[in-house]
Amino acid sequence: MRSSDQPGETRRAWRDAIGVALATSAYGVSFGALAVAAGLDVWQTCVLSLLMFTGGSQFAFVGVIAGGGLAAAPAAIASSALLGVRNVAYGLRMSPVIGPGALRRTAAAQFTIDESTAVSLAQTTPRARLVGFWATGLGIYLGWNLFTLVGALLGDVLGDVRAYGLDAAAAAAFLALLWPRLRERQAIAVGIAAAVVATVTTPLLMPGMPVLVAALVAVVVGWTNWLGRREAPAPEPDDVPEREGLP
């Protein structure tokens, strides 16, 4: 990649980050309102977003609390922890993007989420990937916590926040990043298979487990491809043609 392409790639990273951050942050209104409706007060709701900062785990937590009250706290913590396990895989993938340095890696851990990883890996240059990660992570962190506060304060006024379809906006932004990567039949097949597995296992398993089970689809495919490459015979070198006049 030529150096002259760098500014354009960086601008694209900023554009992707801002779009995803706006769409995802707005969904924080839903979390704030639902958390207060589940029995948490405004401060507890805001602290949960500030410290946990992973939407799927937060919704799983308040969902279990809403069903069983504070007595269900152990189950809520277990469910949210299972959903957060996927961030470990994100951390391994983002490690070369973030670079060395204990302070930098510690700070990056808080912002290693679905969206920041997706925006970063959608870029094509090291600088753009770094910008995409930090711009998305910081943008969503600030916006998510702001809209969490708004939702917690105005929950009664907003009514059923699920009717606004904010979750669809966040999912659409994520899909827009994923779509250009679905150029090969194998990638499309893996995505469809993972979606089917997650849909089938959701009614059967506790929150967090369907995501991990669906991720096994990609692991199995990757492992199969790796074994296939190892077992494939090495190509034999072509015979050197004899030149005329030589034995």
Detailed description of the structure:
- With 247 residues, the chain is an all-alpha fold.
- It folds into 2 domains: 3-180, no CATH class; 182-232, no CATH class.
- It is built from 13 helices and no strands.
- It has helices at residues 6-26, 28-37, 42-51, 55-68, 73-84, 86-98, 102-110, 114-121, 126-153, 155-158, 166-178, 185-201, 209-231.
- Helix 2 (28-37) packs parallel to helix 4 and helix 8 runs antiparallel to helix 9 (126-153).
- The longest helix is centred in the middle third of the chain and has 28 residues, at 126-153.
- The radius of gyration is 23 Å and the shape is globular.
Please specify the SSE layout and strand pairing.
Layout: H1 6-26, H2 28-37, H3 42-51, H4 55-68, H5 73-84, H6 86-98, H7 102-110, H8 114-121, H9 126-153, H10 155-158, H11 166-178, H12 185-201, H13 209-231
Helix pairs in contact: 1-8, 1-9, 1-11, 2-4, 2-9, 3-9, 4-5, 6-8, 8-9, 12-13
Mean pLDDT: 75
CA-based shape: globular
Alpha-beta classification: mainly alpha
Number of domains: 2
For the sheet with most strands, the description reads: none
Number of strands: 0
- Backbone CA Rg: 23 Å
> What low-confidence regions span 5 or more consecutive residues with pLDDT below 50?
243-247
Q: What separation lies between the terminal Cα atoms?
A: 48 Å
Strand content: under 5%
**Series of secondary-structure elements, N-terminal to C-terminal:** HHHHHHHHHHHHH
Percent helix, as a range, is over 70%
- DSSP summary: helix tally: 13
